[in-house]
Amino acid sequence: MRFDFCTLTLCVLALAATSGHASESANIPALVMTSPNSAFANYEDKCSNGGNLDNVNREKFLKLMLADKKSKLSQLKVALLNEIKQSGDEPRGEGVRIGEWNQTFHDRSGCSTNTNSYSAFVVTVTGGNANHTVVKSLITIDDDDNAGKRTLKIRDIRPIKLRNDN
Question: Could you tell me the pTM of the whole model?
């Protein structure tokens, strides 16, 4: 029995170390906004091979931009909500949603320099029972790590007109 318990304990520890849970619980440094559209965080690991690019600070960056009336993302949301209001339609839920983030650029040089971009659709959602969802913009953010200094910033917001079904 003792051998089985020790073996089981070692297997659980090995799985926890390789599953990514250990890196998620690591100390995530504070994100510091440097402008309404950019931020940085200093990580202890200067040679992380991309490990410093956690979702926690990327999500925090987006929330801080949405809360800042001067940020491009916040201004886009306000403009889209005004567009919904002027159309006479009613927003469904928040009315404006940011879709799933996809990595759209990646370049790594050694273990310490990582240059990345992530993009997502910005959509409006209106209507009651008749749901009307329209992609309005494509937002791209840069998320770079240079020897432990991670910088995040808006690269671009591009309008998209796929259909006009008014």
Answer: 0.77
